[in-house]
Design brief:
disordered C terminus, single chain, about 65% helix, mainly alpha, about 0% strand
Length: about 190
């Protein structure tokens, strides 16, 4: 965005930015502190880039996802079964996982934010969801030890790409009236 050539758009974005600064402070801090590393890339930066979406407030991402009745019933049946078991780490882990069912996952939150971009420039980036999903897979590998679709350590350049993709997604998605991306030029 060009503040000189598009002063009205720039003013609109800045007003919207300031309106929701308090509730988005944590995610924006995560963004700016990691972004300041510029061309220094490591796995912690990738993890931080993905995690900033996890700490966005409910007003920025859908906090829940709709479950079918069948899934709601299965969740409750499982909860009942596991609640009746003796307390142990595995039991608590399953109960925690059951508690997350119906809440937006990291991929769902990022997809929600990416939609603002693809609604405007989707034909220019038809595979953006594939890239962001794979970036979450890469993050999950480094956070949870989840097996990747390929060896991330042998392809470190793709980790850099995933990291930059995260920053571009969060930085590009600005709230301007109807939550639309404002093109840098017409």
């Amino acid at each position: 965005m060009d503040a000189v050539r598009q002063p009205d758009s720039f003013t609109n974005v800045m007003e919207r930015w300031l309106e929701n600064q308090d509730e988005r402070r944590d995610a924006r801090y995560r963004f700016s502190s990691s972004f300041s590393k510029q061309s220094f890339y490591d796995t912690d930066r990738l993890v931080g880039a993905a995690n900033m979406f996890d700490i966005l407030p409910d007003s920025a991402v859908p906090p829940t996802v709709e479950l079918t009745e069948e899934l709601r019933n299965a969740k409750e049946q499982c909860r009942t079964i596991f609640k009746s078991l003796e307390k142990c780490i595995e039991r608590e882990s399953i109960l925690n996982a059951l508690g997350r069912i119906g809440k937006s996952s990291l991929k769902q939150k990022i997809r929600h934010r990416v939609k603002y971009i693809t609604d405007v420039v989707g034909e220019d980036f038809p595979d953006l969801i594939i890239v962001t999903d794979e970036a979450v897979n890469c993050r999950n590998h480094y956070v949870h030890g989840t097996k990747g679709r390929f060896d991330y350590s042998l392809n470190s350049d793709v980790t850099f790409f995933f990291t930059d993709n995260r920053y571009a997604t969060l930085a590009t998605v600005t709230k301007s009236g109807s939550n639309r991306v404002i093109p840098a030029s017409n």
